[in-house]
Known about the structure:
single chain, 95 residues, mainly alpha, 84% helix
Amino acid sequence: MGAIEGAVGDLEALVKDGLMDMAEGELFMDDLTLLARQMAAVSIDDSIGNGGDVDKIDEAQQALADGDDLRSSGDYKDAVAKFKDAVAKAEGALP
């Protein structure tokens, strides 16, 4: 997940520096962020399916929702960080 976060940061820099078209950069960043989100959702589903700690799963689901909000506002790098947090919380919920 850290590699995805780094790639999004690199893409942000390319767009900011004018080395990549903004629309193209946002498309790539959104795709990478969606991948991070899918990883988080799978981790949460695994924790639920394996009888994980309900409170920790709730925290993971909140981090997922926060990431969704950030992604929808175009704050891709922070969204990936939230999805990364959701994965960690979901894995921490496992028995």
